[in-house]
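Database export, one record per block. Field names are fixed; values are copied verbatim from the stored entry.
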Amino acid sequence: MIKIWGRTDSSNVQKVLWCCGELGIEFERTDLGGKFGGNKEKPYLNMNPNGLVPTIQDGDFILWESNSIMRYLNEKYGHGKLLPSTIEGRANANRWMDWQLSVLNPSIAPLFRNLIRTPADKRDPKVVQAALDKTSAAWQMVENHLAHGAFIAGENLSLGDIPIGVWAYRWFNLPIERPKFARLNAWYQRLHERPAYQKHIMIPVT
């Protein structure tokens, strides 16, 4: 059975758990990181020198980096189920996975940290507003892209939806006034219908 190290409230761990849910992969998970600690201790660092979560072990194979883990699981156990059948479609899905890391995450993470993990009296309003502006611009890109299909890489859920969908749940649960994005909201509601999203993503935001 696949082993997963990482806490359930980590966005990167949630990607992998959601992916496993969509593919019907059974796993054994160990709480690690955050309030559980252990991610900076030698046994874990021997597996993942970054000291971050998640890390998986499949037999003798150890892998870290959440997007790479999802690609691996999809190829080995999903037989490509969560990627489109065409080269262009797969490139599209992969592009948006990378976009989450390079554009969305740097924008929304400061917003999330300030509004959820920072006491109200210690928040920096300028940082919050700047992050909100950048994050809104990023979601506008997704809104525009969704004019081409029900999901990120077409008419079916793919790996391209998962990294963005994890942060969409946080976005729609932040205590802020959000711009109205009709297609983004419709896509988000489609994610709500998926049992794996309900189980692994729709949990208290902490």
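Remark 1: The first strand starts at residue 2 and ends at 5.
Remark 2: The radius of gyration is 17 Å.
End of record.
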